[in-house]
Design brief:
The protein has 444 residues and is an alpha+beta fold. The protein folds into three domains: 131 residues, 2-Layer Sandwich (Beta-Lactamase); 119 residues; 147 residues, Heat Shock Protein 90 (2-Layer Sandwich). Helices cover 45% and strands 20% of the residues. It has ten helices and 15 strands. The strands form four sheets. Strands 3-2-1-8-7-4 form a six-stranded antiparallel β-sheet. Strand 5 and strand 6 form a beta hairpin. Helix 3 runs antiparallel to helix 5. The N and C termini lie far apart (70 Å).
Length: 444
C-alpha cells in the first residue's frame, strides 16, 4: 500500500491528537458501545475506532479483530488523511491497487469492504476514523453514510467530554492540595499560643467547609453528570437517527430531552466558570473590544433564549470609542448573566430595557425588567452563592449567576448597584473601568 501523504498542517494535527490524551489509554465502555452499535447497525463483522499517530494507527476500540495498532504505512484507515470526502468507501480492497498489500483476515476470510468516517475536532483536524469492514464487497447507501458520519461525531463528542473529565479531576486535585496546605499552615498557627487557638480552629473549619463544598461540587459534576449526560444525548440522537419517521409526540419528547440536557450542561459550565475565576488573571487575556458588537451579539443570543416571550429595547447613550481595553470573556459572561436573568424574571410580554455607554475610561450598562419587585431583604441576598428568591420557584438555575457576576465585577475593579420598585421594576447598574496597558483597571 502507498504510504499516505502528509496531510496539510500535519504537525498541528498530531499536536492536537496528543493534547486530547487518548493514545495508549485503556479500553473504555463509552467507545466500545459505539463500535458495537456500528457493527450491528451495518451488519458487519468488524468495526473499529482508530487514531492516526505519526508512524502508526492505534485502535481505541475494536469489534471482530484482535489488534491494538498497526503501521501507518499499512493501514487503510490512514488513507482518510488523503481523502476529501466525508466517507472513505472501498467496495473491494482486493481490487484496489492502493490496498492490495493490506489484506486482513477474520475467520480465514479476507476483509474486502471498507467504509470509514473521519473523527474531526472543531478546528477540522482529522484525528482518526470510525470504520466498518465486511468479508464481501458492498456499498453504503446515502442514509447509511449519514449514519456512519453521525456515529463518528458521537466519538468526537465522547473524546471532548473525556478531556473535560480529566481537567475537572485535575482541578479537584489542585483544590485538595491547596486545602491540605491551608490546613497545615493553620494548624501551625493554632499551636503558637493557647489564646489564639479557638479563633484559629474556627477559621480552619470555615475554610475547610468552603473548600470542601467547592471540591465536592466540582467532583460531583464530574462524576455524576458528565457521563450520564453524554449517554442520554447519544442515545436520543441515535434513536432520532435510526428511526426515519418519528411521531409528533416522540419528536417532541426527544427535543425536550435534548433541551433539558443542554440546560443542565449550561448550568455545569456556569459552576465551573465560577470556580475557575479564582485561577484566572483577567488582564493577561485583555484585548481591545468593540463594545457595540459585543452587546448586540449578546442580545442576539438572549433573543434566541427568550423565544419571543419579551421584547428588547436597546439604547446607546454614548459611544466615544470602538476600542475598549478589557477582558472580552469576562464582559461576555456579565452580559449573559444579566440578560438571562432579565428573561427569567420579567413578566410575559413586557419590554426588557438595555442601555449602555462606552468611552476610553469605562463601559457602563443597565438592564431593566418588569416583574416581581425585590424585597429590601432580597436586595442584600441576591448576590449570595446559591441564593434563589421567592420569585424563582418556576425558573431553572442554581442561584450562581449573580454571584459570578459580582465576582467578575470585583476582579475588573468595577461597581454594581440594583434598585427595585413596583413602579419602575428592577434595574441593575454596572460600571466597568477600562484596563490600562500597565495591567490594572482604571479607578476614579
Amino acid at each position: 500500500m502507498k504510504i499516505p501523504k502528509t496531510a496539510k498542517r500535519e504537525e498541528s494535527r498530531l499536536e492536537t491528537l496528543i493534547a486530547y490524551r487518548i493514545l495508549d489509554t485503556p479500553q473504555e465502555q463509552e467507545f466500545d458501545i459505539i463500535t458495537e452499535i456500528s457493527a450491528e447497525l451495518f451488519n458487519t463483522p468488524v468495526s473499529t475506532i482508530s487514531f492516526i499517530d505519526k508512524d502508526r494507527v492505534w485502535y481505541k476500540s475494536v469489534v471482530g479483530l484482535n489488534t491494538k495498532e498497526t503501521k501507518r504505512s499499512e493501514a487503510v484507515c490512514a488513507e482518510i488523511l488523503n481523502d476529501d470526502n466525508d466517507i472513505l468507501e472501498i467496495e473491494d480492497l482486493s481490487n484496489d491497487p492502493k490496498f492490495s498489500s493490506s489484506t486482513v483476515f477474520i475467520d480465514d476470510q479476507s476483509l474486502k469492504f471498507y467504509a470509514g468516517a473521519p473523527i474531526k475536532d472543531r478546528n477540522g483536524f482529522t484525528l482518526g476514523t470510525l470504520c466498518v469492514m465486511d468479508t464481501k464487497p458492498r456499498r453504503l447507501s446515502d442514509i447509511e453514510k449519514s449514519r456512519l458520519k453521525s456515529l463518528s461525531n458521537m466519538v468526537m463528542s465522547q473524546i471532548e467530554h473525556r478531556l473535560i473529565q480529566k481537567h475537572l479531576n485535575q482541578y479537584v486535585q489542585l483544590q485538595t492540595a491547596e486545602l491540605q496546605k491551608a490546613l497545615i499552615n493553620l494548624r501551625n498557627k493554632v499551636s503558637e499560643t493557647q489564646q489564639e487557638k479557638a479563633q484559629l480552629i474556627s477559621d480552619l473549619q470555615e475554610e475547610k467547609d468552603f473548600t470542601d463544598m467547592r471540591a465536592q461540587l466540582v467532583q460531583s459534576i464530574s462524576k455524576q453528570f458528565r457521563s450520564p449526560l453524554t449517554t442520554i444525548t447519544s442515545s436520543a440522537q441515535l434513536i432520532e437517527m435510526i428511526t426515519p419517521e418519528l411521531s409528533a409526540g416522540m419528536d417532541k419528547h426527544l427535543n425536550r430531552i435534548l433541551g433539558s440536557v443542554e440546560n443542565i450542561a449550561e448550568m455545569m459550565d456556569d459552576v465551573l466558570y465560577f470556580h475557575e475565576l479564582d485561577l484566572l488573571n483577567l488582564h493577561d487575556s485583555a484585548t481591545e473590544i468593540n463594545i457595540t458588537k459585543l452587546v448586540y451579539t449578546a442580545l442576539d443570543r438572549a433573543k434566541l433564549e427568550c423565544q419571543d416571550r419579551n421584547e428588547f429595547q436597546v439604547d446607546c447613550l454614548e459611544e466615544e470609542t470602538l476600542k475598549f481595553y478589557s477582558n472580552k470573556e469576562g464582559l461576555e459572561m456579565l452580559l449573559k448573566v444579566f440578560l438571562s436573568n432579565a428573561i427569567k424574571y420579567s413578566t410575559l410580554g413586557s419590554i426588557i430595557k438595555f442601555q449602555y455607554s462606552v468611552n476610553s475610561e469605562s463601559f457602563q450598562f443597565n438592564v431593566n425588567t418588569k416583574g416581581a419587585t425585590l424585597k429590601k431583604s432580597e436586595l442584600k441576598q441576591i448576590f449570595d452563592l446559591f441564593y434563589r428568591g421567592d420569585n424563582s420557584a418556576n425558573t431553572s438555575g442554581l442561584g450562581i449567576g449573580l454571584t459570578t457576576a459580582r465576582k467578575l465585577i470585583s476582579s475588573l475593579n468595577g461597581q454594581i448597584k440594583v434598585e427595585s420598585t413596583s413602579r419602575d421594576g428592577t434595574t441593575f447598574y454596572v460600571l466597568i473601568p477600562a484596563f490600562t496597558q500597565e495591567g490594572q483597571a482604571e479607578t476614579k
